[in-house]
Every structure is written in C-alpha cells, then in structure tokens.
Amino acid sequence: MVQKQQAAAGPDTEPKKRRRVGFSPADTGVEANECIKIYLVSSKEEVDSPDISSVKPVDLNDFIDGDGKIYGYQGLKINVWINSISLHSYADITYQSTTNGDKGITDLKSALQNIFAETIVDDKEEFLQTFSTQRDFIRNMVSDGEVMHSGATDGSNNNAEMVSSDLQVIRMQIGSPNAGLLYSRLVPLVLLFVDGSNPIDVTDPDWHLYLLIQKKEDKDDPLYQIVGFTAIYKFFRYPDRLRMRLSQILVLPSFQGKGLGTYLMEVVNNVAVAENVYDLTVEEPSEKFQHIRTCLDLNRLRNFDPIKPAIDSAVQTLTKGKLSKKAQIPRFTPPLTAIEKVRESLKINKKQFLNCWEILIYLALGPIDKYMEDYTSVITNHVRSDILGKDIETPKKQVVDVPSEHEPEASFVVFKSLNGEEANTNVQVDENKPDQEQQLKQLVEERIREIKLVAEKVSMGCPKAKI
Ligand SMILES: CC(=O)SCCNC(=O)CCNC(=O)[C@H](O)C(C)(C)COP(=O)(O)OP(=O)(O)OC[C@H]1O[C@@H](n2cnc3c(N)ncnc32)[C@H](O)[C@@H]1OP(=O)(O)O
C-alpha cells in the first residue's frame, strides 16, 4: 500500500550539494487533515476514478498520536478508499522521500489502524476483489434482522410514506448473530463522520442497531447497501418501564440532505410509540441533528390535540398586554399535565418538549411582528433561567470565582443573582465580555434566530425524502 515516488528531477532541478550538519533537521510535519483524503465507493471501477469526489471526515488529526501531524515524509499523499458494500478499506500511500528528522518517521500503518482497525486491506488487488467476493456481506448480515419499515408501504401521512420502495429499516439486537461483526465494520465510519463519538459496547445486549438499507435490483440478485444507521440503547426504568436513548446516528455522506436522517428518526419515533417505552432521548445531539429532531417533533406536537388548550391559553396571556413592561414576566412553560401527556403519547421527554414549546407559541402568535417584543421577553426569561437555574425576581449581588491566566487566586466576577438563591456555578462567564446583560442578549438573539429558522421550516411543511 506504500509507494515511494521519485521526485521529478530535470537538469534545472538538480539538487545542489548541501553542507552536512551534525544534528537532525527540524521537521514541521504535515497535518493528517491535509494529506489524507477519504473516498466512499461502491464498485471497483470507482477506485481511482477522477469522477469520484472525496468526502469530508470530522477531524483526522485526532487519530494521529501527539499533535495530529505526520512527520518524516516529503510530498505525502494518502488516499483511503472505503468499499461501502463490504466496509473494507484500502490506503494508497505515496511520498517522494523520507527523512528521519528530529521527530522521527510516523508509523503510517499504525496511525491508519487507529481508524480502520481490521477493515483495512494491505493489498490493492485483494481490496478490489472485495467488491465481488463480499458483494453479499450486508445482505447476509441483516438476513436475521427485523424489518421495522419498508419504503412506500406505510399508509400513514408522514415522511416515511414518501421514501422510495428500495429502502428498509432493519433492526438488529447487538447480541444477535452477525450484528457485532457488522457494527465492528461500521466503527471506522462512526469515528470518521460522527463528531466526538465512541464505539458502542458490542458485548452489551441492550444495544440495538437500526440499519437503513438500500436494496438495488442488480441483474438476478439484489445488491444490499448500508445508507445509514443509528445505535439505540434500551434500558430499564423503575419500576416496570423501558427507555430508549439514541446514541449515534449516521447517514453516509453521499446520501445526506435527502431526508433520510429524518426518515430514520421517524421510524425510531414510531417504534418508541408502538413499544410504549417511557420516553426516547438523544445523547448529545449535534446542532444539525437537533434541528431535524425538533422539526419532526413540532409536526407531531402540532397534530396532538390534548395540548392545544394549553397553547391557546399561553398565547392568550401573551397577547393580552405589554409583558415587556411588567415587573415580573410569567414563566410560559406548559402545564405538568401537558408535559406528562406528551411524554406518554409521543415519547418526547420534558427537556425536548420545553424546547419545542417556545416554537409552538411562536407559530401560534399572529401577527408575530405585533408581539415580537413580548415574545422576546419570554425567551429572555427562559434563557436567563436556563443559565442561572432560576427566574429573576429580586436581583441580588453574587460573587463567583472564574478561571484566569493572570491572577488565578484573585479572579472573580460579581453578578446579580436571579432570585436571591445561590446561582448555578456552572455558568459560563466570558472574561472578555464582563457585561452579563450583553452576553444574555446575544444568547437570546441566537435562540430567536434558531426559533425562526425551525418555525419557517415547519410552516413550509415536513421535508420529504427523495432518493
Ligand atoms: C446523537 C448523535 O449521533 S449527534 C450526531 C449526528 N450525526 C452526524 O452529525 C453525522 C454526520 N451527519 C449525518 O449523518 C446526517 O447529516 C444527519 C444524521 C445528521 C442528518 O441526516 P440527513 O439525511 O442528512 O438529514 P435530512 O436530509 O433528513 O435533513 C437534513 C437537511 O436536509 C433537508 N432535506 C430534507 N429532505 C430533503 C430533500 N428531499 N431534498 C433536499 N433537502 C432535504 C432538511 O430540511 C434538512 O435541511 P436543514 O438542515 O436546512 O433543515
């Protein structure tokens, strides 16, 4: 897999003689992100094809021990080809020369194994053969799985209905035959494309994989390909319920932005409802995924009649008078009964419902421009209590230690506590912007932007998958 290239040397480029010195030359190295390119391919003809574009992983520097740089090579280029059918990979490594400088020569094989582990194949010919020898890998692996949804078969009025008929969501318990092996081949994709993720524990049978599979008609035999997947943990809640926690979700880069992440999430939501779990939560959702999840949940909540009176009542209070002029702004949180009904029927947990609640109110206000000032006061109140843990009533001064490079012992800020109680000391204080009100204003502006964006998406209608 390693090829040394001769540096192009003509009469004009003949190397000049250099004086030998008694110490190793300084080597500045090259960042992994700069010299490694990743390609996802589904046929051997695509390998080395100029028509195939590389895909962008999260941060390759993270996988290189030390400072994320590779040392000792001149003109280093690493093209990694991943067979998206068998999930094997091959690294084509070329460089002009090596120099054993002050940082030594990075062991490329072990660096690549940090990501690709046993999926990496050393010999190119052997890799090219995996497209035919391992053609049915996915098909064999999922043969024992449970089909949770097939595209275009569901009569319900949701996104899942629109998904092309060659797609299926198949569930496998991690302890079942094949699921562990299949996941171990997916790990490099998780590491490359899901920011901050760690592989799940394949020995823990409470994990389930929901695999988004595309079944392409191909001559006599259909070809199965993984388009995306999610790993979900099902765990006990005292005294007699189960909860679901979505921990990793990935749609392969070339399939992103086509509504498939939405579709997969929708199928998982339907499973949570059908199996009547206590709730469905998400572990550290990325911004993009949270956006998709909120759009989906808002569509469900807008069709959920039991909360309509609570929304109407909140809207009525908000439209009655100038809230922003009042000394104390009402909380504008949903009643406990609504929180409970939403969790029990839709499996949306309290935190996510509160997040959606603000947008539900925004959507129900009309004309929005007339009430924007009051609405902003409500959001300000929410943001403030999120940061400090409580609502503002009587401001009282508080002193909080903050980290500082200058005089660590003597660094603190004074701010007004929201209700006289001890404030949340996890509050993030930016030393460059000591004005807390200014910081709060910024957070409120960001939140309002977010609300507007989601509200706009939801008003335009649920995105439909096209593949
Ligand atoms: C718990 C965690 O794991 S958090 C980490 C989440 N995973 C990752 O970040 C890994 C990398 N990213 C991904 O795998 C994917 O992008 C996911 C899972 C986040 C989302 O899946 P996707 O299939 O790309 O999402 P989907 O297509 O449903 O929606 C994304 C966008 O495409 C838009 N979209 C949906 N359908 C269509 C369509 N038919 N045509 C064009 N655009 C569409 C959506 O409106 C959305 O746009 P927006 O962001 O402007 O609102």
Automatic annotation (TrEMBL):
Task: Describe the reaction catalysed, as an equation.
Answer: L-lysyl-[protein] + acetyl-CoA = N(6)-acetyl-L-lysyl-[protein] + CoA + H(+)
Q: Name one GO biological process term.
A: subtelomeric heterochromatin formation
Instruction: List residues traversing the bilayer.
Output: none
* InterPro entries to which the protein is assigned, alphabetical: Acyl_CoA_acyltransferase (IPR016181), GNAT_dom (IPR000182), Hat1_N (IPR019467), Hat1_N_sf (IPR037113), Hist_AcTrfase_B-typ_cat-su (IPR017380)
- According to its UniProt record, the EC number is 2.3.1.48
**Marked site positions, Interaction with histone H4 N-terminus:** 207
- Give the residues the record marks as binding acetyl-CoA: 256-262
**Chain intervals for the UniProt region annotation (Interaction with histone H4 N-terminus):** 233-235
**Recorded GO CC terms:** chromosome, telomeric region; cytoplasm; nucleus
Q: What is the protein name given in its UniProt record?
A: Histone acetyltransferase type B catalytic subunit
Q: Which organism is it from?
A: Capsella rubella
